[in-house]
Design a protein that fits this description.
single chain, alpha/beta, Nucleotidyltransferase, domain 5, 2 domains, seven-stranded mixed sheet, 39% helix
Length: 370
């Protein structure tokens, strides 16, 4: 069956493009930096209609949360790596003279006992002021970034953001929102999960959860298990157990009106493997809809390849090969639980949500692009 992409796949945000030929007005530029447990990533963008145009970007695996589960602290080596990456971000922000920005840190800094000292050191070393955001805001921002991928027939939506140190899941009821308004209703969640949508049809957040295990922390939890297949099985069962309290549905949910959107490096890597890409192409991955059978086939292939085979696989990449199986274990657990046999792939997430939220609050985005 030929791969299919959602109609809104290209709607928001626009893919990374070459820099504009004319230097943009710095006052029109926005930046979003996401410092997670494993990666430091940033986007610099300019509003463009109901979307935005990416001017510059940065992404690097820094392993900030390495061994955090064992010590409860950020290590000196991890903090030093991260600060070096943040210095690059600072240079990019200065070169573009970015006027508006939000620079956030997530699970590793939420959990580390020395996080406040680290944040203060970052400001001294780089001049950047990081804010540690709550899990609810992290989940909300991931949700609004995925709004263009929501199908018109979707009445029940689960958005899953698999991070390095945590996994956020948000269940949304859209059954009372007219099909043509469902994407806009989700974007209005920028006011918060319990915010007042005003006179507009409202997307109802039935339940949400932030599980304190992502690809890095789940892998560390089972680091002592030597057998590759056994470790994968244990991780998947363990993660499923973490979701016992997250049960927003009671009774049957029609599969054709239920949609899961997955946003993470794990999900996009699985999609790229399924497509057989030798070089990652966001235009082919973002918005792709995969069946649970296709996802399972990719995961079985990873298991057959073993650690060495995955390390040599260019579709996985050096930065992700050590964490792909913990992410796959989370993905497999989710597909066992929820009433669907399809997953929509989103190459978008916290950074895009941060950009949209800033631009929308400033009134520089048009309303009619969803």
């Amino acid at each position: 069956m030929a791969p299919r992409r959602s109609r809104g796949a290209a709607a928001f945000p626009k893919p990374v493009e070459p820099p504009a030929p004319q230097k943009p007005d710095p006052d029109s530029l926005y930046a979003a930096l996401d410092l997670g447990t494993n990666s430091c990533r940033m986007l610099i963008a300019q509003p463009s209609g109901s979307q935005f145009h990416v001017i510059d970007s940065f992404s690097k695996s820094v392993g900030l949360g390495h061994n955090l589960g064992g010590t409860g602290r950020l290590s000196r080596a991890a903090m030093a790596r991260t600060i070096q990456a943040l210095k690059i971000c600072k240079r990019k922000l200065a070169r573009h003279e970015v006027a508006h920005m939000r620079l956030v840190a997530t699970e590793a800094c939420r959990r580390a006992t020395n996080a406040r000292a680290f944040i203060a050191n970052v400001e001294r070393e780089t001049g950047l002021k990081l804010e540690i955001i709550r899990p609810e805001e992290e989940a909300m921002l991931a949700v609004i970034s995925c709004a263009p991928l929501v199908g018109r027939r979707t009445e029940q939506l689960l958005v899953v953001d698999i991070g390095g140190g945590s996994t956020e899941l948000v269940w949304i009821d859209l059954s009372q929102v007219p099909p043509g308004e469902r994407r806009r209703a989700i974007m209005r969640l920028r006011a918060g999960f319990r915010g007042d949508p005003g006179p507009f049809p409202a997307a109802r957040v039935v339940d949400w959860i932030s599980v304190p295990y992502g690809v890095a922390t789940l892998r560390e939890q089972f680091d002592d298990v030597e057998d590759d297949a056994a470790r994968f099985a244990l991780m998947s069962v363990f993660f499923e157990e973490q979701l016992e309290s997250f049960a927003p549905t009671h009774g049957e949910t029609a599969r054709e009106t239920f949609q899961i959107i997955g946003t993470s490096g794990t999900v996009t890597t699985v999609a790229a493997t399924h497509l057989g890409l030798r070089r990652y192409d966001r235009n082919k991955v973002d918005g792709l809809r995969m069946t649970s059978e296709q996802i399972d086939r990719v995961i079985r292939g990873y298991l057959r390849a073993g650690p060495e085979g995955r390390r040599r696989d260019p579709r996985i990449g050096k930065d992700r090969q050590a964490l792909i199986m913990s992410g796959a274990a989370i993905l497999q657990a989710l597909l066992r639980i929820w009433p669907t046999d399809r997953l929509s792939v989103a190459d978008r997430g916290l950074r895009e949500g941060l950009l949209y939220s800033q631009m929308s609050s400033d009134g520089v985005l048009e309303e009619d692009g969803c």
